[in-house]
Design a protein that fits this description.
By secondary structure, the protein is mostly helical.
């Protein structure tokens, strides 16, 4: 996981109830980050700011693979 500030992970997830709904994880590389499309729907600006400060955006396709892994898998 590329959590930008690993020591703040527990604090962040505890302080933002329901934050896990906005996280995505790639089934290939196990990268965890926020889903940019889902985060846009959240109206709370403080919530969005904290997500962007602490996680990287990860777009996952319908089978659970991130864009970076999909590029590597489609080369073959």
């Amino acid at each position: 996981m590329r959590f930008k500030h690993q020591h703040k992970k527990t604090e962040l997830l505890g302080s933002l109830k329901g934050f896990d709904k906005f996280l995505s994880q790639c089934v290939v590389c196990q990268e965890i980050g926020y889903d940019p499309d889902k985060l846009k729907l959240k109206q709370n600006r403080h919530f969005q700011k904290r997500a962007r400060e602490n996680f990287n955006p990860v777009k996952i396709n319908d089978i659970g693979v991130c864009e970076q892994c999909q590029k590597h898998l489609s080369k073959d």
